[in-house]
Amino acid sequence: MNVSWHQLQQLQSVLHNTQTKRFAGKRKTPKYGSLSKAFSDIQLQRFLHVIDSDKFRLLFKYQAQLGLRIGEAVRVNISAIDLETRGLTVKTEKAQVMGPLLIPMPLFKETIAFISKHKAKIEEAQGYLFYAEKLRTKRPEPYLEQNYVRRIFMEYVRRAGLDELYDTSDESSQDRGVRRLHRLTTHSPRHYAITAFAKQTNGNLVLTSRFARHSDPSTTMTYISTKKEELYKEIDNTFGLNQAVSLKARISGN
Q1: What percent of the chain has pLDDT over 70?
Q2: Which pTM value belongs to this model?
């Protein structure tokens, strides 16, 4: 079929507008509105600088560089790390699928050094990298408990002078008072990683969704700071017409 360049441009514009409308009703709006709960580059550096524990520093780096959820991070086992390829196999908390991730070289070297230093405790913890100190817990699980990590995280956030309250939440239970809502939480390093990855790929939703291990790309869009209109513009500008049609079909199919 012979079509003019002008007709192709019109078709691409129609595809763009149609896809934008499809996602308009699906996009999830965070409870905190447009407030970003991710670290900035400078904030992350300040946060990591005040951490005096090599174990917690490494833990939060795994979140900030690989986008791990806190429950995934504390369960990292050395058996899931391929020492030849630097691949980390992760079973996601929500999608329950295996997702291989490439550990960046600096983080990989830091991991090897940590394993060498704490080899005995890691072996005692059945290979879990972020082992729990037996004197601190009576839990049967040999890895760090999530709520304990959350408390430690907030302590380091305060030390770095980064603690910000953006609202309060009324608890439904009568025996509990008003809960303060902090901008930075243990989800913030993951938020930072996903946002950074999106910027590195020019807002590529498909790649970012895979990196974040989201089963629904619309979930990924709540992490990307780029406005939705700019995101689709980047897709249209980055790919040719056939590629854009194929890409958008795959997005809508997920």
Answers
A1: 67
A2: 0.71
